[in-house]
Amino acid sequence: MSTFVPRDPAAPTERASSSAGRRDHWAVLEGLLHSLTDTTSSTRSIQATVQAAAEAISADAAFWFSRSSGKTLAIAGPRAVEPDWCARFAKSMLDRMPDGDEMWVWANPHPTPDQPTAAVLCRSSKTHGCIVGLSFEPGRAFDDGDVKVARFTLKMLLTQRTQAQAGIKNILGGLLQSLTTIIDAKDPYTAGHSERVARIATLIAKQMGVSADQVGDVYLAGLLHDVGNIGVRDELLQKPGKLTREEYEEVQQHPSVGDRIVASIKPFERLRAGVRHHHERYDGTGYPDRLSREEIPLAARILAVADACDAMMSARRYRPARTPIEIDAVFTKEAGKQFDPLVVRAFMAIRHEVYPPIYQKGIGESAFHAIDQIVDNLTDASAMQLPPVEKRK
Question: Which residues of 232-271 are buried (b: 16+ CB within 10 A; e: fewer)?
Fold first, then answer.
């Protein structure tokens, strides 16, 4: 590794330490096991793991660095280090770390009082985070035993996380199935609508080149875009004739109701924009917030086209299904008015995959894959906030 080490001008003077004062490795790991067993919080699990790693290898400081967010998410040890400095130091190690390596030990060939004399980094392909241990003790070097212990603490965290994720995924999958079943039951005449909207929206999103995570979010938001209909009276949803003004205003509340329902399910919070705004219009005359153009989240602009497409190609009590030619004409006419022209263009590019109506009973594996992405991203604890650094005695 290069001799460059990010400098922390505010770092305190070095702490006198000795390998003789190290805590028993197994006692520390046993304590970590109890901590991980007693909590379901990703934030507390990471903090406990970093603390255990610092104690087990007698590091002056240890921290968790998220490669996805580029931030330091937990700090432990007797020496105070700034989160921003830790992030720069971790990046400098990772930039020089051979691809595929999960652990690396480094010794500073030109140590100074305000720079680490040694460091150890452990990472895994199963997480975006990594553990870094630092020593500021003159002449100190981390050995193979230290590396094995630090790596073991990371494995313990990942094992606990995998078990917790499996439970969360099962719960979310079951909840998603229950909600889609309830939506279909509200109006059997439109059963399968949410599923078809989700699949059409996914095709559009992929055509537009959005990321895999965003495609997953669009799919889930499509499944849940009408969940707010739970709060709408059945007689309005199933009314064969035209709605009165008052009845239409009640139906228009379903995106806001859906937003509140999705907001109550923390892992699904990221889907709120698509659920709330799928009835906004590109020209700003939609509802519930009268957003226009790029003010409307992309997921909602995609869902608006997918929703309209399935509604038009499905028969209703009061009208027959429209033909593909008729649907294309509507989108061409309304591009720039009701719909985002770029989304319409993407739809036209994949229209051959939509006509005749796509349908597959059940929410399918795509939903569970999208849930996997949401839960996997949660465990990096990227939203964790660190308290101000205080000097430790």
Answer: beeebeeeeeeeeeeeeeebbebbbbbbebbeebebbebb
DSSP 268-310: GGGGHHHHHHTT--TTS--SSS---GGGS-HHHHHHHHHHHHH
The DSSP result for 201-214, as a single string, is HHHHHHHTT--HHH
pTM: 0.59
Distances from the Cα of 353 to the Cα of 80, 183, 324, 369, angstroms: 58, 25, 12, 21
User: Do residues 180 and 363 make contact, with C-beta atoms less than 8 angstroms apart?
Assistant: yes
Reduced to 3 states (helix: H, G, I; strand: E, B; else coil), residue 241 is coil
**Residues 110-130: pLDDT tens digits?**
877 778 989 989 888 888 888
Residue 220's closest CA among 107, 145, 299? 299
Give the C-alpha separation, 78 to 68, whole Å: 27
CA distance 33 to 148: 16
Tell me the per-residue pLDDT of 122-159, one tens digit each, with 9 for 90 and over. Answer: 888 888 888 888 999 888 888 888 888 888 787 877 77
Residue 268 near residue 224, CB atoms below 8 Å: yes
Among left, alpha and beta (phi > 0; psi -120 to 50; other), residue 165 is: alpha
Cβ neighbours of 119 (radius 10 Å)? 24
Pick from 190, 167, 141, 200: which is nearest to 318 by CA? 190
Distant-in-sequence, close-in-space partners of 90: CB < 8 Å, separation ≥ 6 = 63, 65, 72, 121, 130, 132
Q: Where are the beta strands (DSSP E) in the chain?
A: 61-66, 71-76, 103-107, 118-123, 129-135
Over the Cα atoms of the chain, what is R_g? 27
Angle at 113 between CA 107 and CA 117, to 5 degrees: 10
SS (H, E, C) 312-349: HHCCECCECCCCHHHHHHHHHHHECCCECHHHHHHHHH
Nearest to 90 by CA among 127, 116, 59, 55: 116
Bridging pattern class, strands 71-76 and 103-107: unpaired
CB 129 within 8 A of CB 67: yes
Check the CA dihedral 204-210-213-214 and report its sign: negative
Say if residue 180 is exposed, middle or buried (CB neighbours under 10 Å; 0-12, 13-18, 19+). Answer: buried
